[in-house]
Specification:
mainly beta, four-stranded antiparallel β-sheet, seven-stranded mixed β-sheet, about 120 residues, about 0% helix
């Protein structure tokens, strides 16, 4: 069974930076797409940034130029967040398409979420 463990969330002042990290555990054969989503109170979960196995990257318009997604190693994806704004406050979720032992296809896996609070 595959689990995603996120770290790096917390409280930061507006204009500051945080780095989120997410590592997959389990017997994993391959990871296709990796991404970060967020959900603010009272709002729907939205895509923040996504990276395909081929290296194509998409960012939401609200974070372009401030956030950077990277694949640190085979099982780890990171999100560097700079120039944070109060509207970036949300719970951030890691997402991966994973092919692991016991599976006959890639399956979507979610992390438990890590809260980010930006104070103005």
């Amino acid at each position: 069974q595959v689990h995603l463990v996120e770290s790096g969330g917390g409280l930061v002042q507006a204009g500051g930076s945080l780095r989120l990290s997410c590592t997959a555990s389990g017997t994993i054969f391959d990871i296709n797409a990796m991404g970060w989503y967020r959900q603010a109170p009272g709002k729907q979960r939205e895509l923040v940034a996504a990276r395909t196995s081929g290296g194509n990257i998409n960012y939401s318009d609200s974070v372009k130029g401030r956030f950077t997604i990277s694949r640190d190693d085979k099982k780890t994806v990171a999100l560097q967040m700079n120039s944070l704004k109060s509207e970036d406050t949300a719970v951030y979720y890691c997402n991966m398409d994973v092919w692991a032992r016991g599976q006959d296809r890639y399956l979507e896996v979610w992390g438990q979420g890590t809260p980010v609070t930006v104070s103005s």
